[in-house]
Specification:
Blueprint (H helix, E strand, L loop, with lengths): L6 H22 L3 H39 L1
Length: 71
């Protein structure tokens, strides 16, 4: 059974998107500090989203295992 993205995954995707916006605005306005902060937020969000996805996949695997045991 496929599960919906969890809170960690969603928060990570939001941070990733916000970081990308900041990074692009910093690049467009030639503001290296904003660009660097955006890059950091994007990378952090990517990591958080990956952790959330791993948690979701583990949960899906446990659901599948439980289904097989109950048969």
């Amino acid at each position: 059974m496929k599960r919906l993205p969890n809170d960690t995954e969603v928060r990570g995707k939001i941070d990733e998107a916000a970081g990308t916006v900041k990074e692009n605005v910093g690049r467009a306005t030639r503001n290296p500090d904003l660009e660097a902060k955006g890059a950091g937020q994007r990378a952090s969000g990517n990591l958080e989203a990956s952790v959330g996805k791993a948690k979701r996949k583990i949960s899906e695997g446990l659901d599948s295992l439980g289904d097989k045991i109950n048969k």
